[in-house]
Amino acid sequence: MEVPLWKREGGGKRRIELRVTDENPDSRRHLPAFERRDSLRYRVSLARVRSRSDRAMFEYPASAWSNANENSTLTLNHTTEGLVVSSDPRKLSYCLRYGPLRAPERGIYRFELTYALLQGAIIFQALNGAGDAWLPASESSHHDSTSRFLEVIVELRENEMFWLMISNRRDCDGVSRFVVQRLEGSRDPGGVFLRPMGPSHLEAFPTTTRGRRSRWRESLSAFADRATGAIAASLGERIRYRIVRAAPEFKSIEQALRASDQQLRELAPLRDLSDFNTFLRDHRPDSLHVNACGDFQLMAREHWDELRAYPEFETFSMNIDGLFSDIAAAAGIQERVLDMPIYHVEHEVGSGWSPEGEALLRRRITERGVTWLDATTVYIWAAYMRWLGRPMIFNAANCGFAHATLTEETIANGLTHADKSNWIRPHRVFERFHGYEGWAEPGFERGFYGVNIRDWVFTGESKGLIDRRFLRIEHPPMDDEYFEWIALLTAIAHAAGRFCFAEIGAGWGRWMASAAALCRQNALDFALIGVEPEPSHFEWMKMVMRDNDIDPDEHEMLCAAAAAESGALMLAGSDQSATQYGHRAIDEQMHAEWRKLPDLTFRPVASVSLDDLFAKHERIDLVDMDVQGAEHDIVAAGIDVLNSKVRMLHVGTHSREAEAGLPSVLERHGWLNAFSFPSRSQTVTPFGRIRFDDGVQTWVSPRWPELHRALVDGVRPTSKSPVRNRRERR
User: Fold this and answer.
1) Are residues 380 and 463 in the same domain?
2) pTM value?
């Protein structure tokens, strides 16, 4: 149905109401089994509002209407109300035609018939000029309090002939009576009529060749029916039986009957469920809001305790909240719907449930051997609770650790201290940054400060994080990486204009991604330099950059090994790149000795010196170096460029030789040491006793003493954990 909304003065809103005028008493049978309830009788499949064309319409003269079938019993009379028509009783028979018409140009033509319906129904269509095919057209209808309207919109070629037809739209034989009041079109009738418009009279529809053929076929068919009946009457019953059995139509019917019998036999066991279906229908649960209801449920605490909270099943958490609503209703708690808009943030496809992602979600949890609570099961349980008149309580009385005595310990950044007088406080620089609070998407976890990390990067295997999760992540713990965090945060806190960071031996780029996240906290622009020789790790590094909205092409990423000189080296290490790091670049002199070590692979890689690496940069705020034993050679060869361009240097050390050699080079050039702790040791630090696998040395250029003060003065030691500083000890 289409409702015309005519323009009115003052504009204003219009309200369209769909009202029921009749109902089907057997409507329950047409609804799904679990949607049958007394209050549901109708479902609206589609309701839409479209704008009506505002183009001017031309009125067409009534004189061009003619009888579409001269041999029919159709009658028509001119009155002051319009053309009164009584159709032929045959269903779908022609009534009137209008034309002939011709399209003066290619385009869309719209015609609207205004009429009053007295009995039956009619249809308004466009017929081609030969009268043997309907033209493809859009047909619609609407009505107001006095008239009805039929609209035809048809696309026509230039000079294409056509007729406008009115037919009896009875589904079975019967007369339709109607009054044609007006015909309008989107084109001027003077340019559409094929012949000049004559006097006001009705002409008979000329008999076409197609009409004569149709009547001849009808007469021949009637004669054949009479002849067949006479022949059949003259044959015996047994012969007629054999003739019928031999007919292909009989065989088709017999085959269909056998198939139907087979289906009935297969469905026979369902008879046992008829009583169960009656039970579910008679004890249908209350109509509650159970769609994503757990995101919005509020409940008095005493009720929550009495019902023992959400059922704790070892399944995927689907429909648990809806089940709890049914449990509360069975306990006599009435649902109250708040009169306010509440919005649910849609899940990502394949994460939480969504219409588009249900199939993907089911497949993912099924592959992991996880089950979930189906809505059908919830419905059955709710029906039983309604029948029982009391709720089903699934959790034991001790759910939620109700009977457990939990001891409390105060945890400070991973270190437990019984003696509160020796409480260790974090470095002051952490006060200038905040942790992460936000979402982790399916398949990802969040590192410190919100770094987006795929859940397989750390271990080489997915952790199965299929949900979207809200996380709160505090500052890093006080472990062997704590001083690397201090160096990074201090360098960013004291950067001006733009922060330039070089990660040498970058792996998958963890510290570069962290630097970007911290710079964004301070609205600080940044430039990244990443050097990694292992090809798989290098590709992961670029992937992690993109996962954190960093375009690798806008920064300097090199698949190479840092070395004393640019050129080529051999990369030695495990071929299990998914789980193994610590690859070492070696030269030809070391190659023969390293060949003796088991389980190593060797591949040629490019090498780059610090001079070449930093050639395009005026200043590097922080260099973070983890090069598996080559640190002394690289620093010694690049000391000049370090002196001229680098503000702070943090080095992970891997041997006693490097830990002694680095100070001999850097102190000779005036560099200031802030932190120095040996590898493979348990060492007392300003932040407690820490186990170091790799050693730690943090150095500051003598041109930036304020950075050294920020590193050292940020330490707030206790009496039992003095600052260990090489220059102060000396």
Assistant:
1) no
2) 0.46
